[in-house]
DNA sequence: TTGAAAGCGCTAACAA
DNA sequence: TTGTTAGCGCTTTCAA
């Protein structure tokens, strides 16, 4: 640091206003019980000195940090391929800053990262955590639980149905999948295939379940597993075409895979939607609108999901409620609605 | 918080190991000067108690936070439309965590946000700042300067050429643009148009300059301003076609605009690359590879850019150097190389 | 309503 | 090499 003037302390403000530190603290923190003429004097001193409270000192005594960790566990794949992530972050950021909380971002990739994250959470830097993109074998939830931090998950956790007070926000994946398939049926399609997402994520499983809800007893040859990437969609589509060249529709687990499927279909000379109708999921604009033809897809409000996660967490924090005690104090799982957006692919 | 056991303090560890607090502190912080048998005893006590230092207490005395603010100033547009942002963040995150620093993310949109950010930076929560996506009229740099925080900018700041010790990392936008246009010339194209990015950002200006470097004295009718979005690319392409129906190539300021241009060209029945060759910029995979045809484009290593920004900042922090004093202590502007990636569009 | 004073958990002189 | 001690800047009883 350079020789810039040292930041003014409470002490300095108190001296200038001719009051005690305690009084300044009260004014700064908005607790009433300071009479008007005095309070005004303090406020002026604060302005004149450009006083900003030292957060470290404050945290030391309050044990609050007004900061929330956002943990994104996604090795390479999806997060960085589509704008999903940025959207969610923005929703979270808006809600947090509206409540004067900071967003500490923790990106994890390797196993090594987990130790680091665990240490960080245990270090008491943040008041709570928001967690994304869990896979079935992820050790993260355990680590977080041990740190005893209030937590809200993005997406239904796989280890339970949300009945034990674990907080999460999810999209209506199953309902959206049903809508998509029903739409295809309404178009007169009967041999409808499904390209699933990575089945170690609940979103992919739920979408598959929705597909099965409507298709009753689908030919197993009409289901192919992907992993949410465009490449996997392309590969899956080829496999499906090889097995069931007579298929007349595809419901892809997300838009990226739908885009891949479109390529495979084009390569095989199938016209979309004439020969094969295609529906995606997510409605990621830069993808869904740019494909040829533009995608009919299931829209979810990603930003709202982020906002809601933050809101739920902040509510718990205000209550001073630890995760284990939160039963009955509010919904533990919130599911956001989706809507089918019709474009040209189906 | 629930009645979870209070976290052990230095004091507790000291008691258990039968030493003083100072000794424990030394061991924990890895300063030598503690003899082996003792050090080992301390380490065991730390493990047994699961001791993790209280960061607030530490910061209070060290005035270090081991945290860096990442400020992204982008109202709506680009950041959330392409995966640029996520990539850069990942690069930053990797470098920061490798040096045990935390990433505090500040997303700004409105003017209101600036006050908040200023307050936050002044509050002394972070040791430095990384700043992105500045536009010419942005008040942010001033606010940051006033907070006296070491800062590294992503992209060349518009207010100077980098001669006064302002640290930044940029892509070789001008050189990349030259490569793109030369490539088109090499293909025998002569009536080459350019769709610019938002000209209140230096990256867009530099790319335009590169275009002009090679085209010498281009027909003004061959240049149209966009804003880095796909929609603007589409619109710009239409305008160009209307003015110069004889054009035989387009260099778009980024891939998203190139994708938009492709749509406009298709709509007008122009074949790519036969009738019109198209080159983009960025090489954002999910876009550049998915277009029809796949894009020839200028690749920049976004993740490396993020990593480098973090590295530069950390170096300044280690030196305890404030931005104003940093002249001559290292490069103030670093420019990363680009490479032309050939696909099918040119 | 205001002030005095104790202490949050840690580091860093300084002494031993 | 190890321990003692004085704060870092703030909030929060408790007394006045």
UniProtKB/TrEMBL annotation, chains A, B:
This protein's record includes keyword Ribosomal protein: no
Pfam families reported for this sequence: LacI (PF00356), Peripla_BP_3 (PF13377)
Keywords: DNA-binding, Transcription, Transcription regulation
PROSITE patterns: HTH_LACI_2 (PS50932)
An MF annotation (GO) of this entry: DNA-binding transcription factor activity
This protein's record includes keyword S-adenosyl-L-methionine: no
HTH lacI-type domain span: 8-62
Name the UniProt record assigns to this protein: LacI family transcriptional regulator
Source organism of the structure: Actinospica acidiphila
